[in-house]
Design goal:
Elements (H helix, E strand, L loop, with lengths): L10 H17 L5 E2 L7 E2 L5 E6 L11 E7 L7 E4 L3 E7 L2 E5 L2 E5 L4 E4 L5 E4 L6 E7 L1 H6 L5 E5 L21 H16 L5 E2 L7 E2 L5 E6 L11 E7 L14 E7 L1 E7 L6 E6 L3 E4 L4 E6 L6 E7 L1 H12 L10 H8 L17
Antiparallel strand pairs: 1-20, 2-3, 3-4, 4-11, 5-12, 6-9, 6-11, 7-8, 7-10, 9-13, 14-15, 15-16, 16-22, 17-20, 17-22, 18-19, 18-21
Amino acid sequence: MATKTTTKVTHYHVQKKRRADFLEEWRGYRNTVVALGDVAMVETPRRMRQGVYVGADGDRPTRTMDAVAHEIDPGVVSSTHRHSWDAMMLVVAGWGWTEIDSERVQWGPGDSIHLPSWAWHRHGNDGKETARFVTFSSEPMVNSLGMAVVEEGGEAAPADLAPRPAYAPPVEGDDPYSRRVRRLAREQQARRSGRLHTSWDDLELLNTPRGTRTTFLLDRAIGYQASGITMAMFEIAPGRGQSMHRHPGEAWLYVLEGRGHSYLGAEPEGGENHPWSKGDIIVVDHYLWHQHFNDDPENTAKVVRIHMFDSVLETMRVLCDPLVLFEEPPDHIRDAQAGDPSTVDWPEVKRPTWP
């Protein structure tokens, strides 16, 4: 016997209500600044403590990226696991190592590490103090596609476990299937040969028109092959600010050093100022105009910016063209907001301290 399913309303009304409900729900998740003191560190089965800045596992759901703090005590080695998304580590305290497949990376405060998708990894603390790092991962984006998978490796060393999933080697032919196989093989070959580590000692900060000096921490421009997450650091001079801009998509700004405030508003004027300090995360996810200021008259502020510009935002810009999705004020206004960074007597770049 045939059955019929009906909603008793048109698809137009169903979709309209569903979309409205979705937006209303997600507006309730929006944050501006997640303070360090609001991130509760909890023991986990991996012999590490974790605390969620933003992400579904901390009841602050996001759509493309999450941000999680991790602590590992002296002498401890975590268990091994891997997952179908990639993650970026920013070390903020302590000295230790991360083993990625068969490669061990030594790290210290200020270092950045890439954990590729499907790479077995574990962490160890061989120092005398608790080590702390923050990870930024693409798990929310992968999960939205129904492809988020985590696999436990227990106490085994990463080198002793099965390698990353195999992929088909390139094949000859000009048919669509052969072209796809070759394209995906090239993509995987590139992604599996990307850079894994940026040492703080190798950083060089350069002046920019926004009034700050900046450097890449993790980006395809310096050899990384990630899912689109990029990580850069900018330094704001004492009592100064970065020029204003806006863009869609989620962006996290982790305060590595200093204190200040950020302007966020639907217009360049009339918005709100949000104070921040060391260890906080500034959340920019509304397509809002935003500008960051250093409130310390004597010391610089260092802020690490993380977003999905090389995947999600690039896709949005193509799909929404000719709409302009990345905006700055005209050059003369930008320059007036930023000031000339070449007039600043910038201090020596030293590794960050904690707390």
